[in-house]
Batch of 2 targets.
Target 1
Amino acid sequence: MYKQVLDIFTKQPAQCIKRLADNAFIPFDPANSDFQEYQRWLAEGNEPLAADAMTPQENGDTFTLSV
Amino acid sequence: MSELKVNAVVDAAGGNTATINGMTPTADSLQGFRNRIINGDMRIDQRNAGASVTPASGDYTLDRFQAFLSASSKYSVQRDTTAPAGFTNSLKVTSLAATSVASGDYYMIEHKIEGFNVADLAWGTANAKTITLSFQVYSSLTGTFGGAVLNSASNRSYPFTYSVASANTWTTATVTIPGDTSGTWLTNNGTGLYISFSLGMGSTYSGTAGSWAGAQYWSATGAVSVVGTSGATFYLTGVQLEAGSVATPFERRPYGTELALCQRYYQEVIGANGGVNANFEAGITQINFNTQMRSAPTMAEKTVLAQSNTSGVSFDPSLTFGTGFYVAMTAAYWYRRSISTASAEL
């Protein structure tokens, strides 16, 4: 199973996919064998999970110091 | 002291197998880096550091050597110190059960050579060069073993056999294969050719040894099944594939050179970041790879060495020479230091 990833800067879908079995980040590079496997998985009619909404931290919201 | 003046030295048949002090100098054998196999002497095991593993199908074991098996848990693989003279290591396979091999079953160790590294062989053209594959094997079993060479589409294959006459004795095998003038053979960063060492192959994937076929044959018909005997062992080292019809002595390369060659396909890298963020932004840094990789690699965190107030990492793995390394933090004071894997295997 795979999950979409959001770009940490643009908050848009990133050019990679997360493989949930081992939390690996697979680039959208046609020469990457894991990406080729992902493409075969998609061709079988599967769909990746949607990306999680970014946490407040990842979303760039202000983090309050407690010191 | 006498002096010999001749214009050419050839063998008795007029060919190029004449030896001088045990060497067979040819245009191919005198080249540096003539061995197209990486880690052929099995010294490098980045993933497992000599530990025995029971691989899933498709898993890489020792560097550059991949396991394929149609049913799980039928054999284990380990870098071993059992080795012939002149070598320190071998790839050891141990059969974990007495497995019957059905027609569609496959059990093998495979090595993929990148197209860039075999482009000069000109396979798929009228100028296709002959190659010679040599290696040393040691097995608890005897008989005729099998393997094959295939193209990336697996629609051209050349099954071969080799004989192991004595059990538990190092045996040198040499297979000379005429270049394939047909089919499509990649010459880029894809798979140039596959080499399989069969551990048990069903009839669907077995063909006649010694000839090219437009089929997906991973071994020769009738070859020994290692997985058919529980506890059977099979050791492999000194694997060399070179242009020409002569098997030259195994090419010795410095360890650091061989490791760098392996790291084009797999490497482990360290990433670290930390700080104090009053106005939070993600912990962003980058990791430079030790060697530029074959493709943009798949990244995964392997071992967290130290961390405080972090919940995980993510990567931007879009480049072949480095990756973005992002740390998700849970409090203002945070740090994380971890080892990650970068895989651009074929």
Target 2
Amino acid sequence: MIALLGKLFSHPLGQFAAKGKTFLLPAEKSTLAPGIDALFYFCYWISIFFFLLILGLLVGFLVKYRRRPGHEAQETIHHSTPLELVWSVIPLILMIAIFVMGFRGFLDLHTPPDNCYEIQANGQKWSWTFTYPNGYSDSELHAPVDVPVKLTLSSQDVIHSLYVPDFRIKRDVVPGRYTIAWFQATESGESPLYCAEYCGTGHSEMNTKVVIHEPGEFEKWLEKASDFIKTMPPEEAGKLVYQKRGCAQCHSIDGSPGIAPTFKGLFGKQEHLQSGTRTVDENYVRESILQPTAEVVVGFDPVMPTFQGRIKDPEIEVLISYLKTLK
Amino acid sequence: MTTAETAAAPPAASAHGHAHGEHSPHLAHHFDTPEQQFDSGKLGMWLFLATEVLLFGGLFCAYTVYRAMHPEIFHWGHQFLDVKLGGTNTIVLICSSLTMAWAVRCAQLGQTRNVIIGLVLTLMCACGFMGIKYVEYSHKIHMGLMWGTNFDPHLEHGAHSQGGAVAHAPAAAHPLEATPPAEVSTTKLPTSNPVTHPAKGETTVAAAAPATLVNEPATSATAKPGQPPHAETPVAGAKAASGAVVPATTAATDSRTTLADAGVAPVGLAPPGAQAHEVPRPKNAQIFFGIYFAMTGLHGFHVLAGMIAITWLLIRTKRGDFSPEYFTPVDLVGLYWHIVDLIWIFLFPLLYLID
Amino acid sequence: MTSPHAAVGTKPVREIGAPPAELNYLNVTHGIRSWLLTLDHKRIGVMYLVSTLSAFLLGGIFALLVRTEHLTAGKTIMGADFYNQSFTLHGAIMVFLFIIPSIPAAFGNFVLPIMLGAKDVAFPRLNLMSYYLWVTGALCAVISIATGGVDTGWTFYAPYSTSTSTSVIPMAMGVFILGFSSIFTGLNFIVTIHKLRPPGMTWFRMPLFLWAIYGTAILQVLATPVLGITVALLMVERAFGVGIFDPALGGDPVLFQHFFWFYSHPAVYIMILPAMGIISELVATFSHKHIFSYKFIAFSSIAIAILSFLVWGHHMFTSGQSALLGMIFSFITMLVAVPSAIKVFNWITTMYKGSVDLKTPMWYALIFIWVFSIGGLTGVFLGAMSIDVHLHDTYFVVAHFHYVMFGGTVMALLGGLHYWWPKMFGRMYNERISRVATTLVFIGFNLTFFTQFIMGSRGMPRRYFYYPEVYTPWHVASTIGSYIMASGFFLTAGYMIHSLFKGKKAPMNPWGGATLEWRCASPPPVENFATPPTVGDPYDFHQVEYDPESGSWRHKAIAT
């Protein structure tokens, strides 16, 4: 039914760029996007129709019946039940139709198929972490094309929302519970991923991307990425950890100030904490990651979420190696 | 409504010196008849009572939601409420409604002395209610049965709670407890949320003892990641230990031994604990007391407001303001008082009589 | 408190002799105390008008700051934290200090008793107290701004709102107090309409503005207490850590959303119903024709009021509520669209075969119909669950609600302001300049917000400080629109204030209205009517005829 509507009501431009962007909507890159877009354009054309009708009558009447000498208001009926029924019932039928289609599309969005590839997605202020079945965590969402992917969403702190416009999916990420989203990408490439629930200072920087791989490429990517600690020199691996675990969102490496202290020249310095001074050594770094609000640097707020339970000690070790290189 | 001479200020009921023989000095000038004025006042008060019902409605809704989702919390929590005291309060309030209704009737009949007696009795009942409330509240506060982070039950006299007690630690943050494997259920996570109030020195934060990690969980938790460690472990000084203590004292030595392995998740705020009581304490038991204090507190506030209104009525009655022609304020405060009573009649079984 | 000219003794209370010429509610007493302690509904209405329009100015300044920041995709004139505060304060001030109170408290207070034929509202002292509650709420908001502001968004979602370090508690207290101002106003209006109707003023002889105010008042009384308990719990949670919304303490953040929207959805109907009431008056008067289908319009106001309580979950389709619950909300949302559509068609039909006079109030009424239709139609997109998943929390939503709240309520407010201005202040404004301002507002408004629909459906999330560069042209267009619109408002303020001093004296009935307020002097005397008017059909324009000599319309065959 929705597919039929899709054929009837897609925007003309949409027919040309069936998979590409239309003027009003982003590219359709998931299996559910065309159905949703079809309903969108159904509403769109109904809106255009009624708007032109209202506008036309309005302009027509104000021109034809404008007040001028010799032109009096004429007596008409004050009420007409048939007319009332017509313009109540027709919109009502249209509204119900839209409701039914919308509800069915919603159920599709919320019913992942049985054989999904599962990825954990964790939101925090202000970054995303995607954990793959082999335990590897990354800041980008990678997935194979033409495979249904189920995301189990959780939050570290406040409510966020995972939004991928190209896939037409959005789901709030609520602390204290798990929520589910799923998609099946229909073409390879990259798409932006946004946080869509206001969460503070870095809300608009909490963006990452979705990378959809051609068949066979995803597994290769995952294998290579997961092994980075073993295969790369510690300093480079540490740099990857810095980028992929969300540290880069708040800690700069070039000395520029931000929400959090810069890492440049951090290792080995005497840091001024709210409770005194300490030398930044391996223990300090480890503790800052696992109990970040225990000691807070003067001039900063205790907003860093803890990574206790979410990071492994080898990752911390390579990160420390990397920090040592940032003079 | 004003003339060039008088300021627009004075209330309609007083301060006009001319003789309008037909109408009571209490008839405001925008009303045509005393009946219209009385009817308007009545309707206004009923509307106000509707708003009160909706105000409490939100709390009743919260109660319903939490009880539906976590009945065990309510079954555990209510045993600390004294049914005798609550029942006494219920009877006290019902009596006060009776005396109030009687006062209204006497005002209607012009029996000023009886009105005063009725109002005084009502006030005394209200004082009794608040007194019993005070006893109940102070008992709970003493036992540490309070809301949120103040929940710190010492159920044996003098002894501190066994395990999982809330440490008043400065802001240690807590992630999701379970590292989520693929078969995770969609039920709620046990805990989370590094809620901090950085500007305040006081903590209102979920700071369950990272200090508990000091001992047992490093071993037991590795076996079952995601399960809160059994809180029987005598975490000595867990309550007193603050998260900040750990680094400062051990900084000189290898602090890695004091923090658990990075991959191990910490304990949540209120892990279950076996108690001497017959009902084991469920997780997040403090929710019951949060709701209890919110509902009874808001109700108590309304009782106090009612007491002020009744006192005002007493003053006016003594002044001779009321008569069979005009007793509207007594009637309207009576209505308010009945609603306050009615709300308690719902609160009592919902909180005290859970079985 | 009667005029010294009144005969005492046998006359009924309401029969009062004509006051001396030139003595009206504005100049009958002087001095600031006579205003601050007034019980006259007209003076209270004027105070509300000045106060709410001042709030509009403050909220508008924050809006211009936000739009100016968006001229570039990166940082333009402020940092992220200040930006977050700006959009929060813009929303909170506009919603709680301006839109919700303005039409009922300013125009409702002034016009309702006169339109009804009553001498005042049922509880004048409560009315004054409502005003002072508004002032107190405004002070709390100012205190909040001065002590660190708020950065939670006007929706205060937990747990961000329970954990942020900004000054949430004073703002929440302000909202709580403003809620009671709203409740008492609604309570007053309900009792007034029920109990103070003079003989002859039956329910179905009431002008439609009063039906609209009545529906609004029901919402104010029944919905606002839930907001009260919600912000009270928020304050208590922040102050004492009660833990009802904080998941770390066992609470449920989605419960906050349910509580918040249970009020805030009816709130948007509190905003739009009075506006629709004004439009009914404007369209009828300036078409000089009986309103079409009076009963349907009246009942649709009540239907909207009732249905509005049942749709709050359509703000929460992505938040984790069950699909079944969402389905119910979506279905009823679709239903609530129908009464609004009925009103639009009835207004247009009123113009058919009428005599349409395109004065400024009518321009605003026509703009309302255009703009509200767009706003309402885009609401349909959002009510459809699957589409909402894509559009929720994007600029599409921002555009939708600005079209209905701003394009709807504010345009109607401006129309009402221009319509009742001569009555309230006894002066005419300059019609030619007012049309220039109207044009600026119309063009500016559409440029500002139509671009936002497109941005939103293309994926631009809302409440974003930084935005992807690809959206820059849309944002720039939107910002330019906002400046055009602002210039229209400043121009309006200019010529309106100018008219107070230099405007032509207004006749009793400059527009040919048939409702009761056009049968008392402009401005009205303190007691509203010299002699009580006879009540007829409020839309029977045969009763009025134009008198070229006095430049005014008047009722035919009236003794006085």
